[in-house]
Amino acid sequence: xxxxxxxxxxxxxxxxxxxxxxGASFGTWWWLVLGQDNxxxxxxxxxxxAGASPDAVLARFTGCVDDVRLAQAAVVLCGPxxxxxxxxxxxxxxxxxxLWRWKARPAxxxxxxxxxxxxxxxxxxxxxxxxxxxxxxxxVQARASGTRRRPRIVADSHxxxxxxxxxxxxxxxxxxxxxxxxVGRVRLATAAWWVLLTAVVLxxxxxxxxxxxxxxxxxxxxxxxxLLTVQLTLYAVLRVREYDADLGSDADPRAPQGAAADHxxxxxxxxxxxxxxxxxxxASHPTPAARLDVLADPARSWGVSPFESLATGLAAxxxxxxxxxxxxxxxxxxxxxxxxxxxxxxxxLIAAVATVAWWRAAAVGHRDAxxxxxxxxxxxxxxxxxxxxxxxxxxxxxxxxxxxTADGLATELxxxxxxxxxxxxxxxxxxxxxxxxxxxxxxxxxAAQAAVSGPRxxxxxxxxxxxxxxxxxxxxxxxxxxxxxxxxxxxxxxxxSVVDSPWWVxxxxxxxxxxxxxxxxPALRPGGRTRATGTAAAPGQHPEAAAAxxxxxxxxxxxxxxxxxLVLAGAGWAAFGxxxxxxSAAQSSAPRSTPGSGPSVAPTTATGSPGASGDPTVPLxxxxxxxxKAEQTKQFRSNPANVCFVLxxxxxxxxxxxxxxxxxxxxxxxxxxxxxxxxSAVLLRDPTGPxxxxxxxxxxxxxDLYYRYHR
Length: 711
What we know:
The chain has 28 helices and four strands. It has helices at residues 8-32, 40-44, 54-76, 78-101, 112-120, 164-180, 182-210, 216-250, 259-265, 272-279, 288-296, 306-330, 335-363, 371-391, 399-402, 420-447, 457-487, 492-496, 502-516, 521-524, 543-551, 556-576, 634-637, 640-649, 653-656, 658-669, 674-685, 693-709; strands spanning 104-106, 130-134, 142-146, 151-156.
């Protein structure tokens, strides 16, 4: 209990916060951005008046639209902030409401309960919690309540009849909850679940039922799954905190030996209702047998359950999709860098839960830190990432088709329509990568002789946490960007350009160097070697963990070999890939890229013209780059819907091929629109030279506004 390493309750609460925040951010975007028709006044105010130079027109228009979308992405942050504020208010009101609901009253100062509470206090001169007695039985004997400044213990009235030693053990257990400060955090997490249900899931569900849409079923299912994940994580936290409180009360030097075990053993066996709740993961307290097992072997509570690994990946996948859109809005011309930054932030969040959990398990010699079990847990972490990316509300359907526009925040992430071989390849990359990450983490923990306590225990764990985020930044960012391009059915040269970047090669090189670190054991070990045992246990290290160090093998060699292959492949593609692939142009309004800054996200399905009830999707290989000359009548050229249709279905050839670029520029110049005429003028300056990316971006942005607002 005195270990500087975070307790399981802390890391699992962080996991719960991630899932709830991701759900709240999507709900905010649904109501405040998409529900407001993407802010038509602000969007249309970006249309410039004639009179300026073509370059000035394009710069002003694209800059204005970028500012609007940055504001929209920032508004999404209001969801988690509002969730936090409402949860705090709910928690403050809950403290009062519980006393009223339980019919609680302050205990008599002269009652025997006050004497038992005084005997259970670890420091009689320290802060004394207020003692209340409730007239209505809830089902537990006592409960820690109140706030940090005003702690409170509420006991059932029938505890007067219990033996004094059992009452003291009960109070000692609740005092440990207060000392660990998990009462307020757990109540805050409970309030967050209720707020997520009442303020996000139910209102969005009612809105979808009253006004059905193509995305309705997918959104309802996803929001229900997110809510269920938060609930299961919350109950897992409630169970883990009981283990921590049991161990803390048993470690009290003033407690009689075996008092905690006697108190736990006096609990009644679980009835059918409690067994059913435990079977589905909705039990708030572990069984007495499980608590006694942990009390006999405290290392049991520092394992890594399969649900924890899967839920961590799920939370990271949900969070990444919304966080990437915000970061991409901050740097609209640096898509790949934005995804790398998002991968770094998400990697640190994953490490705060998964890396710390594996480090704790290795420190106590838990079997979950062994190679096969760690690999399975890492594979579940990767599988959870895949599930989280697809359970995000932004993967609920074909946004380009259903919202009739390719808006950056309503991007397409669903892999439902992607060929099965591509989905399997993406899933295999995550599962194998998660297993390798778990093996690397546990190998590093054994090499560094992870310890429960000691001067270096927390410092080493923090350093590994930071390093884990650096190692995960490029792999995570590249995978999500590649998955997004695959979901958008981008062309092959655009998808492969994910690795055609110095960011990718540099990031994989960092992974190679990181994979070598567990092999440098003598420099990592805080202790020395002895002739008798080979490796001495570090201060605070579990003896079984020290034995695992002696038995460990250079597992990171496998990660090193695979990472080396990826580095060579990326370096080769960066050096020679440009000779075999044509440079790609932006295919949608956002995110976008400039040459050398990373790939563009490209929906290649046909977007219907305003007023159409739904155009069928036509494969690009069945469409000409431009309509035949005979069909390019004056009426065709004067219709913005037709010209924008050409842009959205023409592929990269309409920009990269000089003749097609000239014809595209002529089409744009024939429209009565300031932005498209300016783009035409810029493109016609040098039809055979490099593609002016600003003109391409402005053209797609202008068509996006036309499809949305018919103006």
